[in-house]
Every structure is written in C-alpha cells, then in structure tokens.
Specification:
This protein is α+β, with helices and mostly antiparallel strands. The chain has a single domain, classed as Alpha-Beta Plaits. Helix content is 38%, strand content 17%. The chain has a four-stranded antiparallel sheet, with helices on one face. The longest helix is centred in the middle third of the chain and has 17 residues. The protein is globular. It starts with a helix and ends in a 6-residue tail after the last strand. The N terminus is likely disordered.
C-alpha cells in the first residue's frame, strides 16, 4: 500500500510541475509564427530596403498588432516571418489584415500571400523565445 501511495504522490508532483503549467497555459512558438510573401520582383535593391524600412516602421507604430518580432527575406530566407506574442489562434487573420493594410497604403500595387503552413521556429525562419510562449515546442 505504501508503494502505491508513493507512486501516486510522485505522479501528482510530476504532473503539477513547471512543464505541465507551461504546456497548459501558453502557446507554442510554432502556433504563433506566420510565413508571408510580398512580391518585390520588380523593385530595385534600394526600393526593397525602403520597403523593409517602411514595413518595420508600420509594425512598430501600429499597436493593434501583437507582433513580437519579424524577419525579412535575405540570402538564406525566402519569405517574411512574424511571430505573435498573443492571439495566436487568429495569427493568420491578424497577419493577413496587417499585410493587406500595409500593402494598400503603398503607391505600388504589391501582390502578397499569407501561407497557412505550420512554421517551425529556427534560424532559417524566426526563433524568438520568452515568457509569451511554451518552452517545450515540439514542432514537426
């Protein structure tokens, strides 16, 4: 009987640990990442830099979007990636609204696409960490 009680106590302690709280209370990082693309094929290198600067300013100045961070396309990354800090269940809708609003404010008619793919955090995408996300991300 003592073995059963000891086993039960160990099980309860293990299930009440920090990892269990993180799994139940926070989004995984992959639940909060969105990949998108803006067609910049017709832009010069300087115009691309200007677009990046404008998009960075737009995101920083718009408090309506819970963006924790963003990465830009470069020689090792083909797409834009954003990682939300909140409202991750609506990440696609939030990103779509943000990109649409940004693109519609530009004089050029940019085409864009928001991808519904699950994105794993990595140096090739975006990989922010912090208290907003579950540290036990098991992205596949």
């Amino acid at each position: 009987m003592r073995v059963i009680w000891t086993g039960l106590i160990i099980f309860l302690l293990a299930s009440c640990g920090e990892d269990s709280l993180e799994k139940n209370g926070l989004y995984s990082r992959s639940d909060c990442i969105v990949k998108f693309q803006i067609d910049m094929d017709e832009l010069s290198r300087d115009e691309v830099r200007e677009l990046y600067d404008a998009l960075s300013y737009f995101i920083r100045s718009e408090a309506a979007y819970p963006m924790a961070g963003m990465t830009f396309p470069n020689s090792t990354r083909e797409f834009f990636y954003v990682q939300l800090s909140d409202s991750c269940d609506s990440r696609l809708e939030i990103t779509e609204a943000m990109v649409k609003r940004f693109v519609s404010a530009r004089s050029q008619g940019f085409n864009y696409q928001v991808f519904p793919d699950v994105v794993c955090p990595s140096p090739n995408t975006i990989s922010m960490r912090g208290p907003s996300w579950n540290s036990n991300d098991s992205c596949k």
